[in-house]
Design goal:
With about 500 residues, the chain is an alpha/beta fold. Helices cover about 50% and strands about 10% of the residues. The protein is built from 19 helices and twelve strands. The protein is globular and about 80 Å long. The N and C termini lie far apart (about 90 Å).
Length: about 500
């Protein structure tokens, strides 16, 4: 039997040129828009998605005619990147982010950069920053705010993490972000999880802003019997003054919007609000670090209460409230009082948010620039407003400012709004209209300005039933225990601060 000739198989090894400045993983609407934004500013982007058909569809449609390149594998994507490689992940927070990081690590070299631009929990960013540093890779966790339009034409960007990465992404981020009076709404925030913490607080404040606006709408509709056209006019007028903001602007537009049948669409929407968790995270962080972010917490609970729609409908038929449900005074004066209540409560909300930022900075040794953060939020993001310029000015004047309420501008503003604010909360209670955000903001203000609170009685109660000790007013720092009944012991429990 003769020898069979051996045929050698030719293996083609694909080589890709490093042409891209940055790669982006995740081609949902936000990812696509950020890529197109980067392309507009002269950067070559490599687009990748786990479902590779999305890459082809994006290149054939939205990215047609651009410099955007695609990749059908992570290996191809990495090979197409210039060094140091910059990879931005924009996928669902949690395990999907970790999964992509795990797949990327073996493909990368020392000094390459992974950027998480999703709504990740800040502790995850702290963990990832440390873990990647041990592998000589640089991590950035960046808040991205502004929705689809912001991503396309200029978002607010809040990068934090390994500072060695910042010089390599600064040009890209500050080119594509929103601008406020020519200044980029993006700057370095701080170490490890600082970027995502700042974004979390931004979202918590966003919850508060939205709830305050909804309470103003509820009062005008229920207490004053105003129709949508009139309410839209009021919000439009408010948007020309100190309440000028994106959320006030869109509220005016939403209220007057009519569907195909000619009816106001907002009145047909089911009154059960959803949430993605960042407001809840903010409230939890407030509890964890002993910071009373009461307005944000109430805004989260207001959404939880709204979700009990079926129970509320049943309760509305069984539980009694006030007989009088309409305000009997001057309508225009009351509308002005509602504006003042909204503005004063907004000041309290932001004061609480910055209190939480300051506490976290102390906890994690972050050197946060509070005026810079206000500037980052001044344009591109959902809470963008003229108001934020006043916050930046306050911290520029006094970087060590403990509370916005102590700044001369805000102190004067709250003083001028106070009478109307109290009138609105009082009348809402009398008319049975829930105003959790207005009310808790006022309660916080009154508590913060009180030199004496009834916590002395709480300490006495704690010592009475649990021997938890107390301090005397004239000797703070020294703890005492009293045998209140004469039958208890003199041994106290360990002292701790909540």
């Amino acid at each position: 039997m003769g020898n069979v000739p051996c045929r050698s198989k030719t293996v083609t090894i694909q080589k890709w040129e490093p042409v891209a400045d940055i790669a982006l993983i995740g081609l949902a609407v936000m990812g696509q828009n950020l890529i197109l934004n980067m392309n507009d500013h002269g950067f070559v982007v490599c687009a990748y998605n786990r479902t590779t058909e999305k890459v082809d569809n994006f290149l054939a449609n939205e990215a047609k005619g651009t410099k955007v390149v695609g990749a059908h594998s992570l290996q191809e994507m990495v090979a197409k990147l210039k060094k140091p490689r910059r990879i931005m992940i924009l996928v669902k927070a949690g395990k999907p982010v970790d999964s992509f990081i795990d797949q990327l690590v073996p493909l990368l070299d020392k000094g390459d950069i992974i950027i998480d631009g999703g709504n990740s929990e800040y502790q995850d960013s702290r963990r990832r920053c440390l873990a990647l540093a041990e592998k000589n890779l640089l991590f950035i966790g960046s808040g991205v705010s502004g929705g689809e339009e912001g991503a396309r034409y200029g978002p607010s960007l809040m990068p934090g993490g390994n500072k060695d990465a910042w010089p390599h992404i600064k040009e890209i981020f500050q080119s594509i972000c929103a601008k406020s009076n020519g200044e980029p709404c993006c700057d370095w925030v701080g170490g490890d999880g600082a970027g995502h913490f700042v974004k979390m607080v931004h979202n918590g404040i966003e919850y508060g802003d939205m709830q305050l606006i909804c309470e103003a709408y509820h009062i005008m509709k229920s207490a004053l019997g105003m129709d949508n056209e009139k309410m839209s006019e009021v919000f439009d007028e408010w948007n020309k003054g100190e309440l000028d903001s994106f959320l006030i602007e869109i509220t005016a537009n939403i209220l007057k919007f009519k569907d195909d049948s000619g009816e106001f669409l907002v009145e047909k929407i089911r009154d059960a609000a959803g949430q993605k968790g960042t407001g809840k995270w903010t409230a939890i962080s407030g509890l964890e670090y002993g910071t009373p972010v009461t307005l944000i917490a109430e805004s989260v609970f207001a959404r939880c209460l709204s979700a009990l729609k079926d129970e509320r409908v049943k309760a509305s038929k069984e539980l009694e409230g006030p007989r009088e449900v309409r305000y009997q005074g001057d309508q225009q004066e009351f509308i002005e009082s509602i504006r003042k209540a909204l503005y004063a409560s907004k000041i309290v909300s932001y004061a609480q948010g910055f209190m939480l930022l300051r506490e976290a900075a102390s906890e994690f040794n972050w050197k946060l620039n509070y005026g810079g953060i206000a500037l980052m939020w001044r344009g591109g993001c959902i809470i963008r407003s003229v108001f934020l310029g006043k916050i930046k000015a306050a911290f520029d004047k006094d970087p060590g400012l403990n509370n916005l309420l102590l700044d001369d501008f805000f102190k004067k503003a709250v003083t001028e709004c106070q009478a109307g604010w109290r009138q609105v909360v009082a009348n809402a209670v009398l008319l049975g209209i829930p105003t959790p955000a207005f009310s808790t903001a006022l309660a916080f203000y009154d508590g913060y300005r009180s030199g004496t609170l009834p916590a002395n009685l709480i300490q006495a109660q704690r010592d009475y039933f649990g021997a938890h000790t107390y301090e005397l007013a004239d000797s703070p720092g020294k703890f005492h225990h009293t045998n209140w009944t004469g039958t208890g012991g003199n041994v106290s429990a360990s002292t701790y601060q909540a």
